[in-house]
Design a protein that fits this description.
seven-stranded parallel β-sheet, four-stranded mixed β-sheet
């Protein structure tokens, strides 16, 4: 049995990962779980999966778990706790599904410990892709298996192919809830933005899908995961969410991965790679779909997408600024403190004031992250 650590076990990816574990209960032994604040659900998971190690967001929640678990479970907290769980010596696989820039801490720790990493946290590659790439060259026993459906699709399409034969990557996206709607960005509510047409995800990533910031992040992530230049990574709007991404090769052939939109498929493959096992997802019936549509993205309608691609071209610490300000803006939109239309305006304004560091080290990235968050809070408050 593979020994598994799940960081972010109470979020949508973590919950679905545990569903996969239930389905393949003879394949995995969960030895570590982490949650930031949902202690109630974490307690239920501890009772069911009986991990040896658990991490929560702060000391107060850690004390609550100490009282609940006694000495049966070793409790950690904060970023240091995430790093500790990511580097547990007995762990065979570390699934990193925490949200936001905090995912960088355990990712670095897991790489330095030579782990197989099932990566569902795209922000860490967005803000520190070059740093992560260098770390993998140094720690060659570590490996990443992408868990995002788009990057899992690309990974599966190219795994038996020569890298030099790849012409282009096509990342698909549903277009979110507003692709076909004419609606004023000033009037969009959190409830409307959270009504994704294809996927059931966490709130933050769902808003990123509504602004299409998520697709910009995925371009940056694909660049660092697969070593393909930005000008050879294309975005395609695909409302049916059946084709999860495609790869074009030098002979003109295109390989894609098709399935019903269910995140358990990519999660399970990320955990069982290179083996495949039956899943509980609904099987694809193309005769009931009737058509598969593909469109160019509308950069005017979705300015966050344009800002993400601009940050990608600039590089250095600019993607870290992009991500940090976006996190703050999305949080405030969900709290009804700013309008949907303000999200890209705040990001653009702070990006224009940032003096880019071209080859940052992790410490500089974290400093810039803190600076950008503070500036964003000043703007939206």
């Amino acid at each position: 049995m593979r020994k598994l650590v799940i960081l972010g076990s109470t979020g949508s990816i973590g919950v679905n990962a545990l569903n996969v574990v239930r389905h393949l209960k003879d394949k995995f032994n969960v030895i570590g779980l982490s949650a930031y604040s949902n202690v109630r659900l974490l307690k239920e998971q501890i009772n069911e999966f009986k991990p040896e190690f658990v991490c929560v967001g702060d000391e107060k929640r850690a004390e609550e778990l100490h009282r609940y678990c006694g000495k049966k479970v070793k409790i950690f907290y904060g970023n240091e706790g995430l790093k500790a769980l990511a580097s547990l010596k007995p762990a065979d696989i570390v699934l990193i599904a925490v949200v936001g820039a905090a995912g960088l801490y355990p990712l670095i720790s897991a790489i330095e410990s030579g782990k197989r990493i099932a990566l569902a946290n795209k922000e860490s590659l967005v803000i520190a892709g070059d740093v992560i790439t260098k770390l993998f060259k140094k720690h060659t026993s570590a490996e990443i298996i992408p868990v995002d459906s788009e990057h899992s699709a690309i990974f599966q399409c190219i795994k038996n192919e020569s890298h030099r034969d790849i012409s282009r990557l096509f990342i698909t996206g549903s277009g979110g809830p507003f692709f076909r709607k004419k609606i004023s960005p000033d009037k969009i509510t959190p409830v409307q933005a959270l009504a994704h047409p294809s996927w059931s995800m966490g709130k933050k990533i769902t808003i990123d899908s509504a602004t299409m910031m998520n697709k910009g992040f995925e371009v940056i992530e694909a660049h660092h995961l697969f070593g393909i230049p930005f000008d050879r990574i294309k975005l395609v709007i695909h409302p049916q969410s059946i084709v999860h991404s495609m790869v074009e090769f030098c002979d003109g052939s295109v390989l894609g991965l098709l399935s019903v939109p269910d995140m358990r498929l990519a999660i399970q493959y990320g955990l069982t790679y290179p083996e495949r096992y039956p899943t509980k997802i609904k099987l694809l019936d193309l005769t009931k779909i009737n058509k598969l549509e593909f469109y160019q993205p509308d950069y005017k309608k979705f300015p966050c997408l344009q800002l993400a691609l601009e940050a990608a071209r600039i590089g250095g610490t600019m993607p870290a600024v992009l991500n940090a300000v976006n996190e703050v803006a999305v949080h405030n939109f969900l709290k009804n403190k700013i309008k949907f239309s303000i999200i890209p305006k705040v990001i653009e304004k702070i990006m224009k004031t940032h003096k880019v560091i071209k080859n940052p080290v992790p410490g500089e990235i974290f400093e810039i992250d803190t600076w950008a968050r503070r500036k964003a809070e000043e703007l939206v408050c």
